[in-house]
Amino acid sequence: MNGFPRGRTAIVGSATYGIGKNPGLSSMDIAVNASVRALSAAGMQPGDVDALFICLPDNFLSGLTFAEYLGIQPKITENNRTGGSAFLTHLQSACLALDAGLCDVALIAYGSNQLSGAGKLVTPSGADPYEGPYKPRLPVSAYALAASRHMHEYGTTPEQLAEVAVSARQWANLNPDAWMQGDLSVDDVLSARRVSTPLGIRDCCLVTDGGAAIVVTRADRAKDHTKAPAYVLGAAAATFHHNISQMPDLTVTAACESGPQAFAQAGVKPSDIDVVELYDAFTINPVLFMEDLGFCAKGEGGAFFENGHTAPGGAQPVNTNGGGLSCVHPGMYGLFTLVEATQQVTGTAGVRQVEGAKLGLAHGSGGYLSSQATVILGAEETV
Amino acid sequence: MTEQPTGIRPEQEYRAHLADGRFMLLRSRSSGKCMFYPRVAEPVTGNTDLEWVEASGEGRVYASTAVNQRPPTPPYNVALIDLAEGPRMMSRVEGVAAEDVQIGMAVKARIIDEDGSPLLVFDPA
Q: B116 lies in which domain range?
């Protein structure tokens, strides 16, 4: 039994802004730049919005700042922070609130100037008293530990992890907005500087600025705002832990709960999905997520990325914008998975468009593989 | 002053025990299970009938990474250790090169002084 309002809400506008560097802009400036573009795409302006969802890297009360900046007095001001999965949980809440009639137009936004500002990941989390003294290089070392365990249990290889980065780069090469472009081989990834074994620098996501926004309404008015809405068919989340030392099994993420729930809500299965947009903070993430979401069996995630299976022209396109590894990673990447899935299922992804894509899965991860959220979007004929 | 059912101050007492040369875990009397990190209540059950018990110091490496530093400074190890009593903790394995720490390796706890504070590390058993 699940009460998710399948297909009764839709994304009617989406945008990214400032992928790369934006000297002189604050994180909120970038979020608002993305927001007005997403609203404009839906034929709307800030004053039409009555529900706000945001989470910025450096502002714990960013919902309030956002409302003030846009000059609106929203009925719902949501500021949930579960890390990079937050924006997918925002969408889950927005869909429920829209369907219940608590609001009419929801705006979900993110922005970060971490590259132009700090030049590195900005995070509000302080050192944990029980982990900090051992100086894990967070977040990389947490994912390195997970990778070490996956290799130990399933024989996953550094070459297979490298294939994840190579696939992402091949997609980025089709995306004019992607921050990192150019040839990247498995050998390039393996010979890159090690950061925290088994992960090297090319196994790690980028540090960039960037913003994203989506506009969500009820399905009955979606066509008033765009000729191709992306209908929300399912949205589910699960949290297993925060710190990596408390993760029950380093080879199993909470995506094994959020994924099946979202699929059940949507009434579809992994083999029905045309495009998969995963939060690839590190190359081990897509390996774990494809397993936990049910695209392959546990332990087969590494092999899944071999032979161009997920790359342009492959049978299962994954991270078609180039992902956090090669397109954009402004601290919390989650909302970009939703923007890319929206553009793919609405046929507006340009050169990188996966032909005939009708069903897209977006998956966000927050903390250290801690909070997982899965959203399934579909074109009109899937509703 | 309000009455405290256990009086446990988790982090403060854990560190005081370490400073006295003892690696102690909190255990619920009713469930019999140890926890790490120390908390004021047992996860899931919420049990507050907690007592400190001395850990055996025995464990096995569950996951391991070598964190690179600018050469010639060698990498250092960060590992997750499954304690014989059940809980898992972050620590490091010393006495072998960081990249030679193997998952499954049996290890034994030792308390060292680092930067003026007691710290639990592990050696190959």
A: 58-124
